[in-house]
Amino acid sequence: MIDHNVILTSAQLFEGLGYNMYDFDLHYWRLFVGEYNVLTTDPHEKVYTIKSVLLHPGYNYTSLENDIALVITTQPIA
Fold this sequence. Notes:
This protein is mainly beta and 78 residues long.
C-alpha cells in the first residue's frame, strides 16, 4: 500500500485474462483486504471497489520487465 487508496502490485496479475488489459470492465473487480480463506467470510475482511488499474507503460509480458501496476480504489483502505 503506497497511499490511502493505492496498492502497488504485479502487472502480470492482469495478464492473460482474455481481454484487452487497457479496456477491462472494473465493475466486476473487487479488492479484498484481510481475506484469509476465500471459501468463508472472515470477520476482519473488507471489500473495496476499484476505480482504476494502471500498468507500467513499459511492461513486457514476455520478459516481465517493469512488472508493476497500481490499483486505485474508490474509497480509502482502512
